[in-house]
Design goal:
heterodimer, A: alpha+beta, Heat Shock Protein 90, 3 domains, five-stranded mixed beta sheet, two-stranded antiparallel ribbon, B: alpha/beta, Rossmann fold, five-stranded parallel beta sheet, 22% strand, CheY-like_superfamily (chain B), phosphoprotein (chain B), Bact_response_regulator (chain B), Response regulator (chain B)
Amino acid sequence: MILINLISLSLLYYLKKSSGAQEFPERLHRYFKYGMIAAGVLIALGISNAPPEILFELLSFVLVGAVIYLMLNTPELVYLKTLAITPLPIVGVKLLEYLVRTISPAIFEIVENYLDAAGVFAFIWAVTMWLNHRKQMKEIEIERIITKEQERQLRQTEEQKSQLELLVAERTSEILSQKEELQHALDHLRATQEQLIQQEKLASLGQLTAGIAHEIKNPLNFVNNFSELSADFLHEISEEMPKIPDSPEKENILDLLENIKSNLAKIRHHGSRADSIVRSMLMHSRGGTGTMDPTDLNALIREYSNLAFHGMRANPNPINVDIQLSLDENLPKIKLNSEDFSRVILNLVKNAFDAMREKLSAKNPEYKAKVEIRTRDLGDKVLIEVEDNGPGVPDQIRDKLLMPFFTTKKGTEGTGLGLSITHDIIKSHEGTLEIKSEEGKFTCFSILLPKSTE
Amino acid sequence: MKILVVDDERDVEALFRQKFRKEIRNEGLELLFAFSGKEALEILEKNNPPQVASVFSDINMPGMSGLEMLDIIKDRFPQLRVNMISAYGDADNYRKAMRSGARGFYTKPVDFESLRREIGEILRS
């Protein structure tokens, strides 16, 4: 009977040991523990041959039966099916032996030899099944290892994939930002190219302008000189006329002479207009002459804004303007061609006057014309701003403003060269000119000059 | 008293004759005109020393420029007074003219009042 209990014990021990990898539920562990204790007790009882032997033997069969039943009917243990049926023939033979011996010892003696032979077969069966079980277990183990390895590889692949995705996303955003940068650079290049072309055009236009100006200047001088001479002669004639006796013919001649005089005045007026345009054109195309000397910029601004104001007051259509100077008194002396730069101030202030005159003529009683001129020390640069509260500059013409011959002034009032010359002079001082404006509110010309143009 | 005016523009003759009408009529001024440097030199070389008191010459002329002519005149007739007239008020031409011995330098458009004073001075001398 000890054999049956040893089978129970070893089965339970095996089950308990193999739970390491399979993680059986707590309930099964409890069964294993109690089963092992029961088997231990039954072995001890079997060795001591304590009565009632028949009961203990029966209990041993019940225990081994229960263990095998448990193994066959628990889902977690179903993989141990081969193991469960391994001891089954031995248990069966022993059970038969037990039953026969208990019920009829006489028959037992007759069949004892057969039962012994069955026991040998059962043992052989058990060994075979055990080997079979070992083989199965190995296969399962290998399968488990393979699955584990596959899982590990899968996990690794997943990880690599997500890393790659991260990398790709990073690169993509890098490329996108680079693309944006490149696009920006390209736009900048295109703009610069356009500017260059524009400048090239302007440069050739400048040369052409100079040529035209020179060619026109001579005939224009003749027009002006001869008209002046003729006016002088008319003056002499009108001095001589009283010496001639009055007559209807003389009356007519005097009348005609008056007409000629006014015509000459007109020729003179328009001739000098043309002359001032030609002079501006020449000034415009003239290369940088004159010297750069340290100049008190504030004093220059005071002098020339004042001059512009009085010039405007002395000319037709004077307007009332409030000129405010907010000058940085700590401004150091700036290297300037003061003759050229005074034209910048004159032009900008005059421009402001003209713009505001336009707004004043719109007859808004609330409107008070105001020009503000500011200077500020910005460290390595100096800022000069001329701001008026005139009608402002529409966006669509703002970039045309600096082009030669572009004018918004009506008829004969502007040559379209003032701002163009201004811009050229500022450029020759290595400075920049920027126009800020809001329609109906203000226009502000900002000049940035480097402090030392050595 | 003869004064020679050199300019490639022919209308200069009419202009000067009319401008100095009174001087010509009343003060014995005689104006001679040449329309190129070459022509001017021919006029001057007719007599030696030349019977011209002073020369007024344009600088920018086709062929021989006023400045070239000035150098030749100063070489042959160092005593002759030469005044230059230029369309360009540039410092470069002014310096060249003065270095070559020009007496005066006028820029176009010519200020006839100062020219009249200069000619008056020549007439009185």
